[in-house]
Amino acid sequence: MPQRINPSILSADFANLEAELGRIASADLVHVDVMDNHFVPNLTIGRPVVARLQEVSPIPLDVHLMIDDADRWAPGYAETGAYSVTFHAEAAADPVGLARRIRGIGSRAGIALKPGTDAEPYLELLGEFDQVLVMTVEPGFGGQSFMPETMPKLARLADARARHGLDVWLQVDGGITTETIGRAAEAGADTFVAGSAVFGAGVPAEAIEALREAASR
Ligand code: DX5
Ligand code: ZN
């Protein structure tokens, strides 16, 4: 199964985003964390910056919305041309309807589950999504420690995916390093977000390769 490494620009230099993209040319997608200071206690960037990134990035954008009222705002991110748009389960009144709208606009649709959010309601709905993001830290900040207690949930999702014969991507986000990525891969993840492990490294391209290797070990 192919594995993807998605560096998170949350740990990049926000004053030089275009140059930072050049340092991760070997990445599969670039993970863009949108926070509204309501859904999470942190504030990052919004649609204008994402739209501009979309114009300059040679790498497809994987947009992770940590915002309230996703039903209202998520389609606008899909309209920027983002490769994928992921919203949190709690932030949407109608997650399946919203995923269909995102797909209709032409992006892949993702649903994100916080560490305390049960996967159960979505196991029989996996076909409605292109990816499920399993948060491996509490959303809001980079540089936190991986929560191994989220792995059984990931394994249940991987199980349901196999049972239904789907190719929905299972993404992990938070605390992913060369030390932790193997556990997530073993539990069924195929798409790995890493912020500090990539941009905190001297040479981000080498960090990406080290993560790839550790994931397939
Ligand atoms: C956290 C964000 C992550 C963050 C991960 O809420 O969703 O994407 O950038 O950062 P690290 O890899 O440093 O845990
Ligand atoms: Zn994220």
UniProtKB/TrEMBL annotation:
GO terms for biological process: pentose catabolic process; pentose-phosphate shunt. Its cofactor is Co(2+); a divalent metal cation; Fe(2+); Mn(2+). Substrate binds at S8, H64, G140, F141, G142, G143, D173, G174, G175, G195, S196. It catalyses: D-ribulose 5-phosphate = D-xylulose 5-phosphate. PROSITE patterns: RIBUL_P_3_EPIMER_1 (PS01085), RIBUL_P_3_EPIMER_2 (PS01086). A divalent metal cation binds at H31, D33, H64, D173. It comes from the Bacteria. The keyword Metal-binding applies. One of its GO terms (molecular function) is metal ion binding. InterPro entries: Aldolase_TIM, Ribul_P_3_epim, Ribul_P_3_epim-like, RibuloseP-bd_barrel. Binds 1 divalent metal cation per subunit. Pfam families: Ribul_P_3_epim. Keywords: Carbohydrate metabolism, Cobalt, Isomerase, Manganese, Metal-binding, Zinc. Catalyzes the reversible epimerization of D-ribulose 5-phosphate to D-xylulose 5-phosphate. Belongs to the ribulose-phosphate 3-epimerase family. This is Ribulose-phosphate 3-epimerase. The lineage of its organism: Bacteria, Bacillati, Actinomycetota, Actinomycetes, Micrococcales. The gene is rpe.
